[in-house]
Design brief:
By secondary structure, the protein is an alpha/beta fold. The chain is built from 10 helices and 10 strands.
């Protein structure tokens, strides 16, 4: 592991320049110690990620973005999770493989990239052969994503916002789109065209997720337009309606509601109008707290 990346940490766009090896905490709310809140099979990712066997999700504590509406806010703020060693995480990967998961799904891992690279090397030496999925908020630096070439098989980033005004209001990141767009371009450069196995599970490629926010339909349409004009059908787009207003958004009344069926249908229709063919949509009652897993250190 290259500890120099953590001694003057600029892994994410926040560019904290703090020494995490000395216990300092930056915007991600974590030091150099790995903190994991849950490691278990997850059945509610996109069909080509979870399949019938489930995705082996590893939820890391901490987050550099910090959205006001975050559904995983307990771990994003570093309030939950267990401190573990690199050796232990490599064993967790092997335990997930033994459960016949489709992949190792790393959730919000950006602030632990140097450690994770070492973990993957160690796990592969133990016989790990599952695809590695990098599941991210999208608020990444392209130069940091470049470090992962050869380590990650499937990228699963969000593209939350096009508007700097909206991203500043809800994530304190006016520059979100500029960084996320460059990072996603690097992800696509690394993986190329999507590849699936005989069971329809993606083993290489990029799926960009967009969570539709109440009252932000124009911005969502702008994102669909950007993605299709930039990547065509060389990526998959997951259009999500599962926004769930929790108690942390009471001070933002305009988003203190679920999106309407009409809003979601209009966005889907717009994506189809653009020509999007490779996509996923959500049906039924997905905007529910029951879809948020318990971060009780299961599997850690």
């Amino acid at each position: 592991m290259d500890k120099n990346l953590l001694k003057d940490c600029t892994l994410c766009p926040r560019n904290c320049h703090i020494d995490r090896t000395m216990g300092q905490i930056g915007a991600c709310r974590e030091t150099e110690e790995l903190v994991v809140a849950r490691a278990a099979l997850h059945m509610w990712e996109e069909p080509c990620i979870s399949g019938e066997k489930g995705s082996g999700t590893v939820f890391f504590s901490g987050c550099a973005l910090g959205c006001v509406y975050c559904q995983n806010h307990n771990i994003a703020k570093g309030l939950a999770g267990k401190r573990i060693t690199i050796e232990r995480l490599s064993d967790i990967f092997m335990e997930i493989q033994d459960k016949r998961a489709n992949n190792i799904n790393l959730v919000t891992p950006g602030h632990f990239i140097p450690q994770i690279m070492e973990v993957i090397d160690l796990a592969k030496a133990k016989g790990l052969h599952l695809p590695i999925v990098y599941n991210s908020s999208g608020y990444e630096k392209a130069e940091t994503i470049k470090l992962l070439k050869g380590y990650v098989d499937v990228y699963l980033p969000d593209l939350k916002y096009k508007s700097g005004e909206i991203s500043k209001k809800y994530s304190n990141a006016e520059n979100y789109f500029e960084y996320a767009a460059e990072a996603i371009q690097e992800m696509v450069r690394q993986t190329g065209e999507p590849v699936f196995d005989e069971d329809g599970i993606m083993v290489r490629g990029v799926i960009v997720r967009h969570l539709t926010l109440p009252g932000c339909l124009k911005d969502s349409k702008d994102i669909m337009e950007y993605l299709y004009e930039t990547f065509g059908n060389h990526i998959y787009i997951s259009i999500m309606n599962q926004y769930t207003p929790l108690s942390n958004v009471i001070q933002y009344p305009e988003i203190n509601r679920k999106i309407t069926e009409e809003e979601y249908d209009e966005l889907i229709d717009y994506a189809l109008y653009l020509g999007v063919e490779n996509g996923f949509i959500q049906e039924g009652e997905t905007a529910s707290e029951s879809f948020i897993p318990e971060f009780n250190e299961e599997g850690v």
